[in-house]
Amino acid sequence: MNNHVANLQIGDHIGSGQFGDVHAAVDQVHGNVAVKIISQKEDQTDADWDAAKAEFLREAQYLAAAEHPNVVPVYHLGESPDGKSIRYCMKLCAGGSLQAPYEAGPMRLSQVRKAGTEVLLGLGALHARGMIHRDIKPGNILIDENGVARLGDFGLVTDELLHGYAVGAGYSDHLAFEFWEHGVTSAKSDIWALGMTLYRLLHGEAWYAESRPPRMVIADGGFRDTLKWLPHIPQRWRRAIRAMLHDDTDHRCQNVAQVQAAFAGLPVEPDWQCEVDGQQVRWRRQQGGRIIQVEWNRNSARRHDWRAWSEPVGTGRPRTLGGSNGQVGSQVAIRELEAFLRP
User: Fold this and answer.
1) Active-site residue among 50, 82, 135, 271?
2) In angstroms, what is the C-alpha Rg of the chain?
3) For residues 90 and 34, is the Cβ–Cβ distance under 8 A?
4) Closest of 147, 120, 163 to residue 253, by C-alpha
5) Which part of the chain is CATH 3.30.200.20?
6) 3-class secondary structure, 332
7) Domain with CATH 1.10.510.10 in the chain
8) 36 in a labelled binding site
9) Using CA atoms, how far apart are residues 152 and 304, in angstroms rounded to an integer?
């Protein structure tokens, strides 16, 4: 990786990272690329900016050692001519990030397991080189032109910088218990952040937003016991994610290899397509020549109902498969749905 200002043609804004904006660009050597631009903030003194800039540039030197098929490569970096910004030139991943799928709704089990498995390979490579990602979240998982997940936007945040930027950047939901307790991060903090990311991908933004923001409760301890699960998420997935979110780092998954071992056996069938729309949750999947559908109405704590039916792909009649037989309480509805959705 070279340290210079390249002849870049900056194009459209395509995203925002923790510290700066990302633009599509054309590089004289690598062609179509992504460029992250980190600029001095309006309220930041020159002295503070110089210190932050030096830290960014110092840590960025480690990026050259992070070459891996599941890590977004950084081609070069440098300062702008006026010294007011830093530019990171990276591979442009044609599939974008997982932020948009997360915002659209819950991802399928098969999709999350594939992306999670690939991210773990990249994260393992970083940890093996003594690096910490520090910012694992849906927006920092990029999909390349071959549909492969790659970790991006890593290694640029020290513990000191986290204190100053985490809350404002929205990253604080993924900060592990030990950060709130002791102000430090480690490789095990990355495992926590990946657990949070997997939970979010499985549930989607609308469901995630129904609970109190994790940053408001993680410091109290026992956060993993507060997670609210969609009924179709299998117990093995829940146990694996809860193991990644243990407050005590001695009892959390100790390394990427442990997470990989747990991930390898996670079930993906039945692989429901789920949609959360206000107080209604719907599931859909094809089985043979029929489409199975489930609808859950969450009217209030004591007024839930659900029904399940199948429809033929071609001609034929719908078939009733189950339901709540009227209004039931939330816990009853959840137990019945779990029994139906996870046979």
Assistant:
1) 135
2) 22
3) yes
4) 120
5) 2-91
6) helix
7) 99-264
8) yes
9) 42
DSSP 70: T
| Candidate from 44-53, 104-113, 188-197 with smallest mean pLDDT | 44-53
The pLDDT tens digits for 195-218 are 999 999 999 999 999 999 998 999
Structure-block tokens of residue 25:
């660009």
Q: Count the residues in the chain.
A: 343
Q: Which residues contact 187 (CB under 8 A, 6 or more apart)?
A: 127, 132, 255
Label residue 7 by pLDDT band (50, 70, 90): confident
135 is catalytic: yes
Is the pLDDT at 149 greater than 60? The verdict is yes
pLDDT of 4 strictly over 70: no
Dig out the tokens for 35 from the structure.
């460029």
Site of tokens 């932020």: 99
Tokens in use for 184? 């430090």
Tokens of 185: 């991060």
Q: What is d(CA 250, CA 238) in angstroms, rounded to the nearest whole number?
A: 19
Q: How many CB atoms lie within 10 A of CB 203?
A: 24
Which of 74, 50, 70 is CA-nearest to residue 61? 74
- The number of C-alpha atoms within 13 Å of 188 and in the hemisphere containing its C-beta is 16
Query: Which single residue is written with the structure tokens 């039916």?
Result: 309
Q: Which of 90, 75, 68 is nearest to 20 (CA)?
A: 90
**CATH domain 2-91 topology:** Phosphorylase Kinase; domain 1 (3.30.200)
Q: What's domain 99-264's superfamily in CATH?
A: Transferase(Phosphotransferase) domain 1 (1.10.510.10)
**Tokens, residue 58:** 């110092």
Mean pLDDT, residues 72-99: 86
Who wins on pLDDT, 133 or 120? 120
Instruction: Write the DSSP string, 4-39.
Output: S---EEEEEEEEE-SSSEEEEEEETTTEEEEEEEEE
